[in-house]
Structure formats: structure tokens, C-alpha cells
Amino acid sequence: AAEGSGPVPRDGAGPAAPERVLFPPTFSVSEIKNKQRRHFMFLRWKQQQRKEKLALKKKRRKEREALGDKAPPKAVPKTIENQRVYDETTVDPNDEEVAFDEATDEFAPYFNRQTVPKILITTSDRPRGRTVRFCEQLATVIPNSHVYYRRGLALKRIIPQCIARDFTDLIVINEDRKIPNGLVLSHLPDGPTAHFRMSSVRLRKEIKRKGKEPTEHVPEVILNNFTTRLGHSIGRMFAALFPHNPQFIGRQVATFHNQRDYIFFRFHRYIFKSEKKVGIQELGPRFTLKLRSLQKGTFDSKFGEYEWIHKRREMDTSRRKFHL
């Protein structure tokens, strides 16, 4: 695209006003050989796109103000989330079958407040420093949890010892190349057991603008978008890790947010700025989970019966199909 060498006079009428430079329809930034000029032209093109988008937005807003009550409803943008393929296992809160299952499943004693969660957090054999620090920080998030470092002890031997000591859940943090990359959550004594792939782990010191260390208050628990029967079961597993009597005076909240079958965990504290305004302050740690399998009973890699296994080639045929 030509930059323009200045205004061009029109038949003796004097210098003309400078015209706005427009990119031709066939213009491609990638055709520019010089790297610095290519970067400059790309930024200029992005700036032009933003100006056009802003002008169109202002024009539409003025049209809506002029029409008043006769203005058409705002268009809802299409996203992968709201174009989701309907799942026949979506949970209806008023479904009697779902209510009966909730009253008789493995987590019913917890929701009936008959049991208090007691969690054992352990690691893979010979964990490295990052995994050890993550387990220690996770223990400060989940009340009544205890960290035990494995020393060559098999999970099949750990589980009976946990049951004998009245632990209600077992969390195993696996690692690969010194990085935590897996989480096994087993509800005791009769299961189920969920296996997750873990990614995007951030410890407290790696989070910008983090708050002070969390207190010992029992946090609130928020579960978002666990809509199917499978997602409902996973959400109840996460809820059963925390005592059922949150202490709101601590202003701490643990969030499990499901989006496109990725479960994002965040731990925040409320900051009340005034009577009407409230902010949140992240405490950490943070991580992302992806469900790989859900197994009946406690952990058994050889003879365990699986309720659900993620099969990529069969299940990931559509980008708009989600399972949680």
C-alpha cells in the first residue's frame, strides 16, 4: 500500500486536503518483507479495525436511542458455549429420579451432615519440590486435610489404612518432569474414583496481586456449569471435600468453574470496599482439571469397573459436544 507522497494539486486549485490512507482489498501484511515495517503496518491495520468497530457500535447505539421502545432486541453473539449440542443426560433439579439418586448415593451422608470430611493428600513416589509445595498449599485450601509423602507405598496399601483412620477422601497428585500433571480423587470407603489431567498450575508466589495467606476459616464452595449427570457427580465429589458449614466471616470462597469440560479452580477472598461495592482478591493456588475417567469403587487400575472414560477419537468429533 502506498503511503502517499503528500497532497496532489488539482488543476491549479492549490494543495488538496490530505486523504485518509486505505488499505486495498487485496492487501496482505505478510507480503511485506521488512520485519519492522510489517509489524508497524499490522499495528496500523489493527488500529483501523478498532476505529471502524467503535464507529459502528456508536452508530448502532444512536439508532437504538432514537427508536426507543421500538428498537429490536440486541443480537446474542454466537459462541461455542451457547451453541452447545443438547445432552439428554442434562439434570433437571425437579426430577424425582435425580432426587432419589442424590439421597442414596455415596455422598448422601455428607450432604445430610452425618459425616465430616477428612482428606488425605499424597503424591506420586519421590515428588519434587514444586509438587510438594503445591500439596502444602492445597492443604491450606481444604480444611481438615493432611499431607503424607509416599515412600514407595502402593495405593492399594494406602487406601485400607485411610479407611481405618476414618479418612473420607484421598487425593493423589501425580507429576511428570517435576511438574504436577495429574490428580486422582477417590471417595472412601466405597468410591467412586475420578482421574483428572492437571495443567496450568500456579503457586501463590507466581500469582500477581495475590492476597495474604488464607485463614483457617471454612470457605464457601461455588460449583458452576455442572449440568449433566456425569457433571453432577463430579460436582458432588468436589463439594464433599469441604465441610458443609462455611464460615462466612472468613470471606473465603473456593470456585470450581466448568467451561467446555475444563474445570478451573480459583481460591479468592472477598474485599468489601463499601456497602454497595465488593471486590475479590485471589489467594491461590490455581489449576485446571480435565476429566479422564470415572471409576466405580476405590482405585483399581487392573480390575476396576469404569462408569465413564474419555475417548478422544470417539467423543471429540464435535467441538460443541460437552460431557460435564
From TrEMBL:
GO terms for molecular function: rRNA primary transcript binding. GO terms for cellular component: nucleolus; preribosome, large subunit precursor. SUPFAM superfamilies: Class II aaRS ABD-related (SSF52954). Keywords: Ribosome biogenesis, rRNA processing. The keyword Cytoplasm does not apply. InterPro entries: Brix, IMP4/RPF1. Pfam families: Brix. It comes from the Eukaryota. May be required for ribosome biogenesis. This is Ribosome production factor 1. It comes from Catharus fuscescens. The lineage of its organism: Eukaryota, Metazoa, Chordata, Craniata, Vertebrata. The gene is Rpf1.
